[in-house]
Write the structure tokens for this entry.
Amino acid sequence: MQVLEIIVLTDLGVYAAHRTFHAVPILWRFHAIHHSVEEMDCLAAFHVHPVDQIVTKATALLPVFLLGFSGEAIALYSVIYMGHTMLVHSNTKIGFGPLTWLIAGPQFHHWHHAGERAAYDRNFAGQLALIDLVFGTYRVPTASMPAKYGVDDPIPSNIFGQIGYPLVPRKAVTTGDRPRSEP
């Protein structure tokens, strides 16, 4: 039971942090590193700026530790989370059929990464698509997968460039719903 409680609690934290990273231009610059992948595969799950990772994990896990969940439940949750995050970023076309509205699957998360304006700023939950349904940010238009992935900004391809990318001042520009910048 604790594992299920942790999944719900942490996914509310992931949703809040993730949505904030999309809404606040300076935070988007950190999160854009994750969205810069142009081909989805399980390694995309780990293509994350350290600031993005620290803030998101702290937001999601701090309540779990403060509420005193058992170490065993947290460990089991961690295994489930890691496997699930690799699955949703994988290059599979798996849909969860009638559970698509409840559990985030590859199709759900691929639409979050879609390089199409209609898909921007949707599907923020990590594990429970139901959270996006409740907050009005759910979007899985069809059984198909997005035609392209990536971001409008030119993100450096090497690790050092990506770590420094959010820290380099740029002039803000708005295109659609997703903030972007110009050098």
Notes: Residues 2-169 form one domain. Residues 2-23 form the longest helix (22 residues). Strands lie at 171-175, 178-182. Helices lie at 2-23, 25-35, 50-66, 71-89, 106-113, 129-135, 159-164.
